[in-house]
Every structure is written in C-alpha cells, then in structure tokens.
Amino acid sequence: xxxxxxxxxxxxxxxxxxxxxxxxxxxxxxxxxxxxxxxxxxxxxxxxxxxxxxxxxxxxxxxxxxxxxxxxxxxxxxxxxxxxxxxxxxxxxxxxxxxxxxxxxxxxxxxxxxxxxxxxxxxxxxxxxxxxxxxxxxxxxxxxxxxxxxxxxxxxxxxxxxxxxxxxxxxxxxxxxxxxxxxxxxxxxxxxxxxxxxxxxxxxxxxxxxxxxxxxxxxxxxxxxxxxxxxxxxxxxxxxxxxxxxxxxxxxxxxxx
Length: 257
What we know:
Elements: H1 3-22, H2 27-36, H3 41-62, H4 71-94, H5 103-130, H6 137-156, H7 161-172, H8 177-202, H9 209-230, H10 235-256
Helix pairs in contact: 1-2, 1-3, 1-9, 2-3, 3-8, 3-9, 4-6, 4-8, 5-7, 5-10, 6-7, 6-8, 7-8
C-alpha cells in the first residue's frame, strides 16, 4: 500500500465517521474507495465494518447528553440490533452479493418516506398522548421488528442503515429527532460491533487489518466531528440531510449494482 492510498483510506474513514454520526451511509464512501483501490468486495466490506466501529464509539459519546434517561428504550431495541447484526454478518459470508441488491434501494426509499412523514406522525402521537389516548400497542412491536430488519441489513452491508433507522423511529416514536439520532448511533454501533466480532471469528483471513486500522482511525476522528456538527443542526436541516444522503445512496447502489 502506498502512502497516497493510505491517506485516501484514512480520509474516506474520516468522512464516513462524520456522515455516519450525522445521518448514516458512511459505507457509501469507504466501500467504493476500497473497491476502487483494488480490494475484493467481501474483503473491503468486512475490513470496513471492523474499522467503522471506532467511529460509532465516538458518535455515541458525542450524543451522551441526548441519551440521558434512554436506558429503557435502548434496552428494548438493542437486543434486536445485536441479533440482526449477527444474522446479517453470517448472510454476507454465505449468500451471493446479488441476494440483497434488489431489496436495498427499497429499504432506503422506505426509510426516506418515513423520515418525511415522521413529523406528522409524531404530532399525531403527541396529540393522542395529551388527550390521554394510549399509544397503539403495535407501535412498539413494529419498531423492534424494524430495528431487527435494519440490523440484518446493517450486518450484511451497512450503507444507509442510519437512514432506515431514523425513518422507523421518526414514524413510530414521539421523541425529538436529535434524541432519535442518538438512538440511531447506539443501535448502528451495536450492529457494526457484533458484525465485526462475527467476521473476526468466522472470516479472520478476509480482514485486511491495515485497511481496518486506517478506516478506524479516520472514523474515530469523524465521529467527533459529526457529533459536533449533527447536534447543532435544527430538526428540519437534519431531516433534509438525511433525505439528500439517502437519495444519493439509492442512486449509487442502483447505478453500481
């Protein structure tokens, strides 16, 4: 690996860590970069997943204020992310890459639609709460199921996992969007971490550790930057960023599939 290639991977990791913290979809930067540099797709995906865990750690730390008092909610959602991440990682190693190519754009598009209608759904939920009407029982189950599916997808590929999570939570939760972003960072980090551990156990030989280290260092710094940027964005601006990144993700995935 040349110094120029190492610098490119480091910068891609930093950009991915920043975008993952604010929105998600950082893999749409690092994965194409690694493939462009000649790394096989599975090696690129596995090494990238291992590296991006570091960015998730700084992202979660950066959103610690928004996460105060969130233990009960995360305790309900985190197991779904954990199980989904393991299942997705195993599917990556067992199934051909084309298996998920058809459904990925659909999942991202669904996430974007939920981000768009999320404010209206949240307002209705707040009105029902103020009127003393209990939240629909199926909301909680639907959110857990959605987080599980997002975790499977995240363990398999990961690009735009954050968009999907934000869409689900915007539609099914009445929490403010910045708090939801904190949830998203925790859940996505869990998925990346358990997928990374799965790869270390099952596919150690497919991990390029230098690549993982460079992506990790860059993502670690990017997580700090993203926390400072993302937490200052007003709700409308944050939703706009999510939608733009999601649309770009759909275009890139469809174009290169």
